[in-house]
């Protein structure tokens, strides 16, 4: 069961709010202090990805962030973009990063995924159960106090 | 914290000091400023990230865009960053192999220090 659920219209300005809430709930859940920067970055990347997809497809649907602290700290970021938009998430090799032919969007997507994969040990990207969309699920360990 | 952008000249380099959070919301302002600087004739550009609290993939994309722009203009582009959390972001994305990264502005603005934007 989600302890905190946040839904926001797909506007870049709200991504910061999602990061702040995500880190506040992580701290309260008992995620180690040294992991909080990574939590902040990963939630930000997942929300940025969702907002970018919604804008790309002209969707006004809300992006949802669910935070749960049952046994570990689990954050799910849910978008409603067509599922094929998630295909092609891959880490770019260094020699392609500054390649002239690579578009800014492709670069940002590739780099964003590299950050998610690099900062989250337990990461799943899967289709949502109902309708179009993708869930990016991230799990961090908690230390019970 | 809001994005702050300050420009100064050090040893014939244009140094853009960035502060606050660089993310999907604020990165367009950083992109605009970098484009303005190059359009105004800056060719040796250093972006100082020491006061940056947060940097995401959108911000990294803007920095790569500036590198490409200066490379096309036969200029140089370097970054100043000594903060471990930010350096880790560059390592994880392999962008540490793309940007010249210096620990201080002095190191980045030494005439032979930044080299060509390659």
From TrEMBL, chain A:
<dbReference type="Pfam" id="PF13581">
    <property type="entry name" value="HATPase_c_2"/>
</dbReference>
<dbReference type="GO" id="GO:0004674">
    <property type="term" value="F:protein serine/threonine kinase activity"/>
</dbReference>
<protein>
    <submittedName>
        <fullName>Anti-sigma regulatory factor (Ser/Thr protein kinase)</fullName>
    </submittedName>
</protein>
<feature type="domain" description="Histidine kinase/HSP90-like ATPase">
    <location>
        <begin position="8"/>
        <end position="140"/>
    </location>
</feature>
<dbReference type="InterPro" id="IPR003594">
    <property type="entry name" value="HATPase_dom"/>
</dbReference>
<keyword id="KW-0723">Serine/threonine-protein kinase</keyword>
<keyword id="KW-0418">Kinase</keyword>
<dbReference type="InterPro" id="IPR050267">
    <property type="entry name" value="Anti-sigma-factor_SerPK"/>
</dbReference>
<keyword id="KW-0808">Transferase</keyword>
<dbReference type="InterPro" id="IPR036890">
    <property type="entry name" value="HATPase_C_sf"/>
</dbReference>
TrEMBL record, chain B:
<dbReference type="GO" id="GO:0043856">
    <property type="term" value="F:anti-sigma factor antagonist activity"/>
</dbReference>
<comment type="function">
    <text>Positive regulator of sigma-B activity. Non-phosphorylated RsbV binds to RsbW, preventing its association with sigma-B. When phosphorylated, releases RsbW, which is then free to complex with and inactivate sigma-B.</text>
</comment>
<feature type="domain" description="STAS">
    <location>
        <begin position="3"/>
        <end position="112"/>
    </location>
</feature>
<dbReference type="Pfam" id="PF01740">
    <property type="entry name" value="STAS"/>
</dbReference>
<dbReference type="InterPro" id="IPR036513">
    <property type="entry name" value="STAS_dom_sf"/>
</dbReference>
<dbReference type="InterPro" id="IPR003658">
    <property type="entry name" value="Anti-sigma_ant"/>
</dbReference>
<keyword id="KW-0597">Phosphoprotein</keyword>
<protein>
    <recommendedName>
        <fullName>Anti-sigma factor antagonist</fullName>
    </recommendedName>
</protein>
<dbReference type="InterPro" id="IPR002645">
    <property type="entry name" value="STAS_dom"/>
</dbReference>
<comment type="similarity">
    <text>Belongs to the anti-sigma-factor antagonist family.</text>
</comment>
């Amino acid at each position: 069961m989600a302890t905190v659920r946040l839904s926001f219209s797909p506007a870049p300005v709200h991504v910061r709010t999602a990061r702040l809430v995500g880190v506040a709930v992580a701290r309260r859940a008992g995620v180690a202090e040294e992991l909080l920067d990574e939590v902040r970055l990963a939630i930000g990347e997942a929300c940025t990805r969702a907002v970018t997809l919604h804008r790309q497809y002209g969707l006004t649907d809300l992006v949802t962030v669910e935070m749960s602290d049952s046994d570990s700290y689990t954050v799910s970021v849910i978008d409603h973009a067509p599922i094929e938009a998630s295909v092609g998430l891959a880490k770019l090799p260094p020699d392609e990063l500054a390649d002239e032919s690579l578009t800014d969007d492709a670069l940002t997507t590739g780099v964003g995924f590299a950050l998610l994969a690099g900062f989250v040990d337990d990461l799943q990207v899967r289709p949502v159960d109902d309708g179009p969309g993708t869930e990016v699920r991230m799990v961090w360990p908690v230390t019970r106090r | 914290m809001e994005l702050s952008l300050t420009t100064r000249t050090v040893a014939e380099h244009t140094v853009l000091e960035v502060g606050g959070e660089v993310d999907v919301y604020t990165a367009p302002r950083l992109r605009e400023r970098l484009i303005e600087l190059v359009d105004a004739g800056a060719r040796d550009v250093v972006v100082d990230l020491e006061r940056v609290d947060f940097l995401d993939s959108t911000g990294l994309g803007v920095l790569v865009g500036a590198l490409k722009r200066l490379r096309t203009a036969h200029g140089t582009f370097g970054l100043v960053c000594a903060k471990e959390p930010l350096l880790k972001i560059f390592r994880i994305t392999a962008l540490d192999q793309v940007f010249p990264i210096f620990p201080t502005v002095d190191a980045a603005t030494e005439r032979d220090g930044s080299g060509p934007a390659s």
